[in-house]
Design brief:
The structure holds two protein chains of two kinds. Chain A is mainly alpha-helical. Chain A has six helices and no strands. The radius of gyration of chain A is 24 Å and the shape is flat. In chain A, 22% of the residues are buried. Chain B contains 22 helices and two strands. Chain B has a two-stranded antiparallel sheet with strand order 1-2. In chain B, helix 2 packs antiparallel against helix 3, helix 9 packs antiparallel against helix 20 and helix 15 packs across helix 20. The radius of gyration of chain B is 22 Å and the shape is globular. Classes of the chains: A mainly alpha, B mainly alpha. Chains A and B meet through helix 1, helix 2, helix 4, helix 5 and helix 6 of A and helix 8, strand 2, helix 9, helix 18 and helix 19 of B.
Chain lengths: 156, 502
């Protein structure tokens, strides 16, 4: 069985996206009588280009020998295991985006900053907690004041 | 020319604009001096603060960040031995050994002065060549502009560290992103029945997501023990002014040569500070009477490195302002700032917005002066700031990115765009796809499509692109740049195989 390498994963993911977008491009309005080419032409040129380049990357990757993962676990499992912190940070940011309109800027940002600093700095000493809370309680109101009163930009 | 420059100088000389330039320079130096933060990140973080400003103020602030950012790499390069930005890698070669032998103030002072002179020379290049190129390109019709954009994209993709295929792929993905939403004929494309996609993706959240997320989270992945060794550094620096002046006076030719190399390389799409840095360092070594001193803490090495990377700033403005083709990533973002303020860079900018062009020149000059003063007066503080650990920096910058994206239209959807493109950018980066061509594609996509269709409406025959001399030349150059990159890739691979085999 073929091992999933980054080139293969990239090429397959892009080919899938190209297929979906090609189907979707069928619903773009066709050209009128005064237009030599329609609105679908440019994206379709790009989709074909992406598909061709992806196929070349895929074919090239098939000629490259790849050792199976040493741990015996799946490639994806190993990938996620090694990037637990990064994945957690992404999840936190997604939650922040979801909570921002609900909780408002001050509360949502404070929660996001405290949680992400705790994740990256650790929570094992009082000093780390002091740094965490010090940064969060200074930065969040400061940014609010600059945007709201300095730049007249409303934050949620 | 003199008239509009004086008018621009009067606008930039306004205390509030001067204050913005100084703030920009300070922030740029801080950004440049923190390893892993980079000039581009500093520009992206400050960008949202310009939304509520008039064009001159916004652009002046950004120019300040730009000038400060390119010089900021000196601090961490000299103090920590870690280049603050990729464009100050060779500064470390001589700056760090000089600091280690007890002369950090001298190394920093030489770097700052060389940076200042490099910026001044590059401004002269910009003032002289910008209008010349712009007036020449006034004759460009849609065929020539289309071919020029294609050439710029292939050039940037080809210079993506031996990943030509992925570079081209990234450029195409960037262009594809711009096709979402209503097109110029008011036809809806790729909305997937989601009303929010009708207006397409804003350039800023896409750029921040693709670049900042991948960079910040990449830094988290790479966290190592640099921090613990860095904290042992003595940040109590004093600058020996007399000695620095002597050093700089003995480096006149080196400064001029390195600044011209930086300006020239900055003006070429896709190259930027890193390439300029290496080329000028190499040239300085070749021309030196004591090449054996390079890498051991010679002032010549620091001058070559810093004069060239700062000269990139002025040089990179030449194609951006004159042709509307950004030379590198920070310039692509600068172009985004101009577009956001309703100004389209290109040949017409010199006719339609001469005061703004003059304001850019003036901001570069004032920014260079502010950069020297800030660096020399506050170097101890910058040295301390460069020790901020990534664990603190990353959440704070992510928060600023989110607020910046929101503030663009007061719309939470833009934060989601930032998030989604952050995930996409991170995954593409992990797959070895260079992100600069993607961002350039996002910046140039709408213009490319507009020019292509204008050309086809004037003449539906595609062969016209090949029968018009200039557009044919640009297309030939595009093909040549791809072929040359392929040749280079093969050569590098062959060399690697030869060195591996016994």
């Amino acid at each position: 069985m073929l091992t999933l390498t980054k080139d293969r994963a990239l090429a397959l993911a892009l080919l899938l996206i190209v297929a979906v977008m090609w189907v979707e491009s069928g619903s773009i309005r066709p050209p009128t009588s005064w237009q030599p080419y329609g609105s679908a032409l440019f994206p379709r040129i790009l989709l074909v280009t992406i598909a061709l380049l992806s196929v070349v990357i895929l074919v090239r990757s098939l000629f490259t020998k790849v050792a199976p993962p040493a741990s015996g676990r799946g490639v994806l499992t190993e990938w996620f295991e090694r990037r637990k912190t990064v994945v957690a940070l992404f999840v936190m940011f997604g939650l922040y985006a979801a909570l921002l309109p609900v909780l408002g800027y001050i509360v949502a940002t404070m929660v996001f900053l405290i949680a992400s600093l705790a994740l990256l700095l650790g929570v094992d000493t009082k000093r780390k907690w002091a740094i965490n809370l010090g940064i969060s309680c200074t930065l969040v109101p400061l940014v609010f004041v600059i945007f709201r009163y300095g730049l007249n930009v409303w934050l949620p | 020319m003199t008239n509009f420059f004086l008018q621009a100088l009067a606008e930039v000389g306004n205390p509030s604009v001067l204050g913005l330039i100084i703030i920009g320079v300070l922030f740029g130096i801080v950004g440049g001096s923190i390893p892993g933060f980079t000039v581009t990140m500093a520009i992206l973080v400050v960008f949202p603060f310009t939304f509520a400003m008039d064009p001159v103020s916004g652009v002046s602030l950004m120019v300040g960040v730009f000038v400060g950012g390119y010089s900021g790499g000196i601090v961490s390069g000299v103090m920590l031995g870690i280049p603050g930005t990729p464009s100050s890698i060779t500064t470390v070669y001589d700056g760090y050994p000089m600091a280690q032998r007890g002369e950090p103030g001298r190394a920093l002072g030489i770097g700052v002065m060389a940076s200042f002179l490099g910026t001044l020379i590059s401004v002269a290049v910009l003032v002289f060549f910008g209008p010349l190129i712009a007036s020449f390109s006034m004759n460009f019709r849609p065929w020539e502009i289309t071919a020029l954009i294609v050439f710029a994209l292939t050039l940037v993709a080809g210079l993506s560290n031996g990943a030509l295929l992925k570079g081209l792929l990234a450029a195409a993905i960037g262009l594809l992103i711009t096709t979402v939403g209503y097109d110029r004929n008011s036809n809806l494309r790729f909305d997937f029945d989601l009303p929010a996609l009708g207006s397409g993706f804003e350039m800023l959240p896409v750029m921040i997501g693709v670049f900042a997320f991948s960079q910040l989270l990449g830094n988290i992945e790479k966290l190592n023990d640099e921090k613990s060794s860095a904290q042992k550094i003595d940040t109590n620096v004093t600058i020996p002014y007399g000695l620095i002046m002597k050093d700089i006076a003995s480096q006149k030719l080196n400064t001029l040569r390195s600044s011209l190399i930086g300006s020239l390389i900055g003006a070429l799409p896709g190259t930027g500070g890193t390439v300029a840095n290496f080329v000028s360092y190499d040239q300085a070594k070749k021309f030196s009477r004591h090449p054996e001193e390079f890498g051991k803490g010679t002032p010549s090495g620091i001058v070559a490195s810093e004069a060239s990377n700062s000269a990139v700033a002025g040089g990179a403005f030449v194609p951006t302002l004159a042709l509307g083709i950004p030379g590198d990533l920070p310039m692509a973002i600068m172009m985004g700032v101009l577009i956001l303020h309703g100004i389209t860079p290109g040949p017409m900018m010199f006719e339609q917005n001469p005061v703004l062009v003059g304001a850019i020149y003036a901001s570069l000059l004032i920014g260079a002066i502010a950069m020297v003063l800030c660096n020399l007066l506050l170097v101890r503080w910058f040295a301390k700031i460069s020790l901020i650990p990534q664990q603190i920096l990353v959440p704070a910058v992510l928060m600023l990115c989110a607020i910046g994206a929101y503030a663009l239209n007061n719309n939470v959807f833009d934060i989601w765009v930032l998030f989604i493109f952050g995930v996409i950018g991170y995954l593409l980066w992990k797959a070895g796809v260079p992100l600069t061509p993607l961002i350039l594609g996002v910046v140039l996509g709408n213009n490319l499509e507009r020019q292509l269709f204008r050309a086809l409406e004037l003449d539906p025959n595609w062969l016209t692109f090949l029968t018009r001399p200039l557009s044919a030349l640009f297309l030939a150059l595009a093909v040549a740049s791809v072929v040359f990159s392929l040749y280079q890739d093969r050569k590098v691979k062959r060399l690697q195989q030869t060195t591996r085999s016994p």
